[in-house]
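Record type: monomer structure entry
Structure origin: computed from sequence
Chain ID: A
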Amino acid sequence: MASAIDQQALDQLFLSARTYSGWQAKPVPDELLVKIVDLMKLGPTSANCEPGRIVFVKSADAKARLKPFLSSGNTDKTMAAPVTAIIGHDLEFHEKLPQLFPHTDAKSWFTGKPEHVIETAFRNGSLQGAYLMLAARALGLDCGPMSGFDQAGVTTEFFAGTAIKANFLCNLGYGDAAALKPRLPRLAFDEVAKIV
């Protein structure tokens, strides 16, 4: 039986973790990005469908390709971030179900059912994006997730010729604490949850 993680881990993942807009000029090694994905893919998805697809934008050329699709409020912080993860979801994820869920014919659950495919891909791809952020924090990186971009444009630019659709972006790196503002309020338990 698993026990609760310690206070330091809770702080790193949630309590002290923040959404960063300012970044230190410290590179993120490719090996760390591989470790993040290796952790991310262990998070649960329905029928182990794993529709999440990630492009890590690091090079100057790739950043130049991304820049025109960013909202004005997200441009500077994204260009300054060491890495920007484009979190997408594959609308052909079910083609891999014979490999990922081999004990039954799960592919047939989705074949010819485009609405079910879209809903499942979006939900589980979003979950995998959240797992990516927690994995990044667990491995010592800071995160800056965001919308505020031309989703169709990023999809065309970075996922052309595939069935992958961009969902959201997440800047990754070592955050500049001096650029942080006070933490914004959060809703109380009774405003978001109930026990029945």
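Annotation 1: The helical segments are 7-15, 30-40, 60-66, 72-80, 97-100, 114-138, 151-159, 189-192.
Annotation 2: The beta strands are 52-57, 83-90, 142-146, 164-173.
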